[in-house]
């Protein structure tokens, strides 16, 4: 069974870079069928798609976050990562990693990790 | 703030049928599939409907989706207390908002 697990620091300071990793088990990120991405949810609010990456390294980003976001793959560890630079309190959210495909859309989600941005 | 529009709240009584709406525009719902997600309190979203009206394995047939033009709906029949959750619609967007866009979510209360 596919599982995705987010990991990263529990707190980030304003103006710094938020960095998260998603470890995939029960499946390979080198599959040509899927994209691997990130979605976030500020406390008490709705979902915001951040971006995704294919096994070839092609990336798609939310236009509103594009200047600050980088998503990358580490095939050797079956992981993918998110970097969000110059964070502010508005970036405080639960960050989910997820798999998406052409048929079922965003079909598998990690459990999410809360990342507060605070000094 | 959200590209897709959903009513913030809805309610129903056990056994009732409720319908949740989601509206967009030609660049998203009008030309692409719609997806629905259920988010129980404290949990990650779960795929409920894909490609407008398809249910993943394990999703009860009480849940059904439909699409017409630039709007979509999620219907829940035989409402149960465990259906109380937030429901989000999503779609691929061919315009400047995309690729993926979400609605703001509808909080469904089972009275």
What is the strand and helix layout of this fold?
The complex is a heterodimer of chains A (119) and B (111).
Chain A: E1 3-7, E2 18-25, E3 34-41, E4 48-54, E5 59-61, E6 69-74, E7 79-84, E8 93-101, E9 105-109, E10 113-115
Antiparallel strand pairs in A: 1-2, 2-7, 3-4, 3-8, 4-5, 6-7, 8-9, 8-10
Chain B: E1 9-12, E2 18-23, E3 34-39, E4 46-49, E5 63-68, E6 71-76, E7 85-92, E8 100-102, E9 106-110
Parallel strand pairs in B: 1-9
Antiparallel strand pairs in B: 2-6, 3-4, 3-7, 5-6, 7-8, 7-9
Q: Mind explaining what this structure looks like?
A:
With 119 residues, chain A is an all-beta fold. Helices cover 0% and strands 50% of the residues of chain A. Chain A is built from no helices and 10 strands. The radius of gyration of chain A is 13 Å and the shape is globular. By secondary structure, chain B is an all-beta fold. Chain B contains no helices and 9 strands. In chain B, a hairpin with a 7-residue loop joins strand 7 and strand 8 (100-102). The termini of chain B are far apart. The mean pLDDT of chain B is 96. The chains are: A mainly beta (119), B mainly beta (111). Chain A binds chain B through residues 46-49, 52, 60, 62-63, 96, 100, 103-112, and chain B through 2, 33, 35, 37, 43-47, 50-51, 54, 56, 88, 90, 92, 96-105.
- State the major sheet of chain A: 6 strands, antiparallel
Biggest sheet descriptor of chain B: 6 strands, mixed
Structure class of chain B:
mainly beta
**Quick one: overall form of chain A?**
globular
Most residues in contact: chain pair: A-B, 20 and 26 residues
Radius of gyration of chain B: 13 Å
Query: What fraction of residues of chain A sit in β-strands?
Result: over 45%
Q: What form of chain B results from the Cα inertia axes?
A: globular
Structural class of chain A: mainly beta
| CA distance, first residue to last residue of chain A | 39 Å
What order do the helices and strands of chain A follow?
EEEEEEEEEE
Average of pLDDT of chain A = 95
pLDDT average of chain B, as an integer?
A: 96
Uncertain stretches of chain A: none
Helix content of chain B: under 10%
């Amino acid at each position: 069974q596919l599982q995705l697990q987010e990991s990263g620091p529990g707190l980030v300071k304003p103006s710094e870079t938020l960095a998260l990793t998603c470890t995939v088990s029960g499946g390979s990120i080198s599959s040509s069928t899927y994209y691997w991405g990130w979605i976030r949810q500020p406390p008490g609010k709705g979902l915001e798609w951040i971006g995704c990456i294919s096994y070839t390294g092609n990336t798609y980003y939310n236009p509103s976050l594009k200047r600050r976001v980088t998503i990358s793959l580490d095939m050797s560890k079956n992981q993918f990562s998110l970097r969000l630079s110059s964070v502010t309190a508005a970036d405080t959210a639960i960050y989910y990693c997820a798999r998406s495909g052409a048929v079922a859309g965003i079909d598998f989600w990690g459990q999410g990790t809360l990342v507060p941005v605070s000094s | 703030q959200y590209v897709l529009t959903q009513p913030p709240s809805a309610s129903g009584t056990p056994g009732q049928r409720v319908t949740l709406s989601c509206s967009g525009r030609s660049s998203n719902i009008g030309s692409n599939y719609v997806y629905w997600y259920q988010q129980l309190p404290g949990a990650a979203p779960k795929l409920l409907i894909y490609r407008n009206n398809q249910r993943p394995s394990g999703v009860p047939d009480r849940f059904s989706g439909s699409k017409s033009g630039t709007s979509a709906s999620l219907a829940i029949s035989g409402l149960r207390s465990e259906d109380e959750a937030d429901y989000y619609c999503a779609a691929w967007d061919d315009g400047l908002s995309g690729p993926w866009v979400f609605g703001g979510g509808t909080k469904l209360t089972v009275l």
